[in-house]
User: Which sequence fits this backbone?
C-alpha cells in the first residue's frame, strides 16, 4: 500500500482500497472549499495513484459530513488580482483535466453538497454515485462569473443544453432524485455512498481496462464526430483491442469457461 499523499493545510489522502482500486479522500473543514492547498493535495494524490502503476479504478470521496466539495475558495478570490485569478483557475482546470484523462476509471461518491467547482470535480470523474441528501449546482452567476473549470462543457454533455442552462442560469441546487433522472448522476443509493462507490469500482477493476478506456473514447467520439465517422472510430477501436489489447485473454477465458485474468 502506498503512503497517503498529504498537504499540510488541506489533507487529501490517496491509498489502495482493494486490488486495483484506490480511494482519494478530501478533508478540508468546514466544507472542502477548493483552496490552493486542497488543489495541491489533489495533484499529489493523482501523482501517488499514477506512481502505483496498478490502479484500474479510483473513488473520489469526502471525509466531511454533508459536503463533497462546496466550490471555489471565495475568500481567496476576494483577495487576488486578475493574474492570480487566472493561475487559480488554471490549477482547478488542471486537476479536473488530469482526472478526466487519467488511465483509470474514476467514480465520484457524493453524499452532501457538490457545488460550483465541487460539482465540476465530480463531473470530471467517469461516473457519479449519489446519496439521497446530495445536492448539485453551479451557482457561479451569483458571483458574476461562470463555471470555469469545465462545467459549461461537461454538464451539457450529460444532461443536454436546456437542462444545463436551467441549472446554471438559475444557480439552483438539483436534488439527488432529479440528478439521477436527468443523467447528472449514474447511481443513487440509500446505503453508505462511499461503500457503494467502492463496490462499483471493485466491479469495474475486474474487467479489461483497455476495453473500458476504448468504450469511453468511442462514446465521447459520438458527441464530436458525424455518425459515419463515429462508426469508423468504433470499428478501429475494436480492431485495435483484438490485435493488441486483452481480447485474446477474454476470448480464451470464455471458451475455457473460466474467469478472465486481465492485467
Assistant:
Amino acid at each position: 500500500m502506498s503512503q497517503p499523499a498529504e498537504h499540510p493545510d488541506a489533507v487529501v489522502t490517496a491509498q489502495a482500497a482493494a486490488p486495483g482500486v484506490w480511494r482519494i479522500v478530501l478533508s478540508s473543514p468546514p466544507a472542502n472549499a477548493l483552496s490552493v492547498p486542497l488543489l495541491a493535495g489533489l495533484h499529489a494524490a493523482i501523482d501517488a495513484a499514477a506512481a502505483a502503476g496498478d490502479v484500474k479504478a479510483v473513488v473520489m470521496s469526502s471525509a466531511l459530513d454533508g459536503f463533497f466539495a462546496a466550490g471555489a475558495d471565495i475568500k481567496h478570490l476576494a483577495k487576488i488580482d486578475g493574474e492570480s485569478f487566472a493561475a487559480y483557475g488554471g490549477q482547478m482546470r488542471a486537476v479536473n483535466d488530469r482526472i478526466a484523462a487519467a488511465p483509470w476509471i474514476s467514480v465520484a461518491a457524493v453524499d452532501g453538497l457538490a457545488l460550483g467547482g465541487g460539482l465540476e470535480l465530480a463531473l470530471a470523474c467517469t461516473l457519479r454515485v449519489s446519496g439521497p441528501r446530495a445536492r448539485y449546482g453551479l451557482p457561479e452567476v451569483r458571483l458574476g462569473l461562470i463555471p470555469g473549470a469545465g462545467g459549461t462543457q461537461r454538464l451539457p454533455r450529460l444532461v443536454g443544453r436546456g437542462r444545463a442552462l436551467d441549472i446554471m442560469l438559475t444557480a439552483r441546487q438539483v436534488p439527488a432524485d432529479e440528478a439521477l433522472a436527468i443523467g447528472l448522476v449514474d447511481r443513487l443509493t440509500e446505503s453508505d455512498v462511499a461503500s457503494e462507490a467502492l463496490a462499483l469500482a471493485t466491479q469495474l477493476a475486474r474487467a479489461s481496462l483497455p476495453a473500458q478506456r476504448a468504450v469511453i473514447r468511442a462514446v465521447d467520439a459520438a458527441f464530436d464526430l458525424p455518425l459515419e465517422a463515429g462508426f469508423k472510430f468504433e470499428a478501429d477501436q475494436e480492431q485495435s483491442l483484438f490485435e493488441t489489447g486483452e481480447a485474446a485473454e477474454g476470448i480464451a477465458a470464455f471458451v475455457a469457461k473460466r474467469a478472465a485474468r486481465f492485467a
